[in-house]
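Hello everyone,

My group is preparing for a crystallization screen and wants a predicted model to guide construct design. The compound we'll soak is zinc ion. Before spending weeks at the bench, it would help to have a computed complex in hand. I've included the protein sequence and the ligand's SMILES below. Output in structure-token form would be ideal because that's what our pipeline reads.
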Amino acid sequence: MTAARAGSRAAKPGAKKKAALARRGPARKPGVASHIPLGETATEQPEWRTFVGRWLAMSGCKVEPAPHGDWEVELCEALQKRWRRQRVRLVFDPARNTVPRGAWFTAPGSTAGRRILEAALDHPMFTRRTALAQVPGAPPEGIASVCRARGLTWGPARLGPVRYERRVAFHAVITRWGGLPWQEQWVILVGAGGEVLERAQAPQVPDVRPREGLYQMGEELEPELRERWLQAARATLEELATEREREWEVSVGRLRDAELERLGAFFSARIEEEEERDRRRTGRDEHELEHGDATQLKLEWERRAAEVRQRWEMRTEIRLWGLEEWSWPVADLEQELKSGAMHVKLRSAVDVARGRPALPACPTCGEQAEMLVRARGHVACANCAGA
Ligand SMILES: [Zn+2]
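Reply:
Good plan to model first. Here are the tokens for the complex, ready for your pipeline.
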């Protein structure tokens, strides 16, 4: 799945000028144009290294550590063919001045980084795993561990037998092009009915101990179900990309404005110099010539500013690179809430892989409740009790 999203975010010159002036800090040296990108790519990204390492291992490559945090990689057959070499030295440290002969500088967004990402995204990896159950499957206090009760007493928690449900994890990389290329890894966990259960910015489903293979899960996936899962994941990824884009617009916009500001300071100073020289001049012919230079400078300024805006124009791309089918341990938890003669039975589904009960449904409205209270001789959530 590939989705490219184009966004034209060229800022309006008038509005931006004001904003840029307001942000001018004492530390900035006006007129110094720097083309060294600062910020996000200036330090190594540990998630990126994890991603590359995991992908290389899953593709069948052999990775050995080399000095300075480099990796010496013996490529698998498919990659040997693809890249026409048997081994490659990967350099991750973005601050390294010299790179060993033949080595690939592998920071996110670098040429080799993109090459690796492209190969990784070519065929989504498909794996089957089982989430190991925790013992005990739920905390002893049961639902009380996730839901507070006021004016009510919890009875003992009764955990039912553990069963295994099918879940699917979608692994995706969201890439931002424009200015500083940037990548983030996300994982989305979808439940049996196609509902999105979790999303996390991580290379793996978090807080779970996996084992290879599907436990207690024989039958193959139905095609309609698979399609429903894919649709849910796709919609969530789209939402995610929109959220990330909104946030990136701010950070990218700030870097772009800083560059425009430096450019502006440089050209304003040059133009001012030209005009000052102009005023001192006596010869008329010469005057016109010099006046022409100031105009040339203004045109050059506009051209360069347009270039800067274009370079920072943002484009986001989402790509799915891995699918994991999971066998996931779940169980039902039953527990009573009591107040005098009143007994209300509550149920919660427990994620046994994490030993975590879900929020119980409010007995009055059915919504998930973080707190239950006694209201008009019945049990209700804060919303129901307040209404
Ligand atoms: Zn309620």
